[in-house]
Amino acid sequence: MTIEIKNKIVGYEVAKKDAEVSDKKTQETENKKEAVATAEIIQMHEKLERPDMLLGSTYKIKTPQSEHALYITINDVLLNQGTEHELRRPYEIFINSKNMDHFQWIVALTRIISAVFRKGGDATFLVDELRSVFDPRGGYFKKGGKYKPSLVCEIGDAIECHMKMIGMIKDNGLDDSQKQMLDAKRKEYEAINCKDIGASNNVAVDETSSNQTSDFPPNAMLCKKCSTKAVISMDGCMTCLSCGDSKCG
Ligand SMILES: [Zn+2]
Questions:
Q1: Which of 58, 82, 110, 163 has a CB 3.0–4.6 Å from the CB of 73, allowing a cystine?
Q2: Is the domain of 129 the same as that of 183?
Q3: What Cα–Cα distance (Å) separates residue 15 from each residue in 3, 18, 29?
Q4: For residue range 3-25, what is the model confidence (pLDDT) as tens digits?
């Protein structure tokens, strides 16, 4: 682009060039600052050196299949501690039990899970993988009427519980209004049910419910969505009192 100068030149300055240079400089320093900031954010990776101290949680699993409980310990590493990018990520898992039946498999599993944790990235897939394992000898019901297809599934539950605690998995639990609605439904159902059974049977019902330690009506059916014996039939609808899943007709 050419500019025709019609008037006399009375003076000049190279302000534009200076401005350009300083602009460039500030941009460069800003870029550098950004680069430094991103470089400083430490993500989980294999070569991360294990700190001498890790924070951990231990989860107890008691199954009817063994008299000895299983203790799952998950230790976390704190990344970028004290900064806005602070992250708590699982670093290793240990499983201890007096029961030595499955010892070699459990050691192998914990080593592989720990390796996946240390690889970094999204390790939440482990939960679904472990939970979908079923024991060919059959599963069992836990306190509260929840069906567990295997011990491995319970290890998955413990990892999920831990990942929820440290914020890696969002807790999609029921909100208060949903809980209230289910509670009301349950009371309504129990009122109808108790009338049918009659007063003499009430004691027996209480006994079985405490023996089976179910939180839901004793004749509730198994929910396909949450694997809990909590589905009741009322007003032509099948409703799960645990997860709220409902089907009518
Ligand atoms: Zn359910």
A1: 58
A2: no
A3: 17, 5, 21
A4: 787 788 777 777 666 656 566 66
The secondary structure of 148-162, three-state, reads: ECCHHHHHHHHHHHH
- Please tell me the distance from the alpha carbon of residue 90 to that of residue 15, in angstroms, as a whole number: 56
Range of the domain at 73: 55-165
User: How far away, in angstroms, is 225 Cα from ligand 1 center?
Assistant: 5
Q: How far apart are CA 137 and CA 156, in angstroms?
A: 19
223 part of a folded domain = yes
Does 27 fall in a domain? no
C-alpha dist (Å) from residue 248 to 142, 231, 237, 245: 28, 12, 4, 10
b/e sequence 164-189, b meaning 16+ C-beta within 10 Å: eebebeeeeeeeeeeeeebeebbeeb
Q: What whole-number distance in Å separates Cα of residue 212 and Cα of residue 142?
A: 9
Domain end (from 165, 185, 215): 165
Q: How far is the CA of 64 from the centre of ligand 1 (A)?
A: 22
How far, in Å, from the CA of 226 to the mean position of ligand 1?
A: 4
Distance 6 CA to ligand 1 centre (A): 86
Q: Which of 130, 165, 200 represents a domain boundary (last residue)?
A: 165
- 73-106 pLDDT, tens digit per residue, is 999 999 998 899 999 999 999 999 998 888 899 9
CA of 220 to the centre of ligand 1 (A): 11
Query: Which residues are CB-neighbours of 209 under 8 A, at least 6 positions away?
Result: 218
- Across the strands, what pairs with 66? none
Q: How far is the CA of 46 from the centre of ligand 1 (A)?
A: 39
CA of 70 to the centre of ligand 1 (A): 26
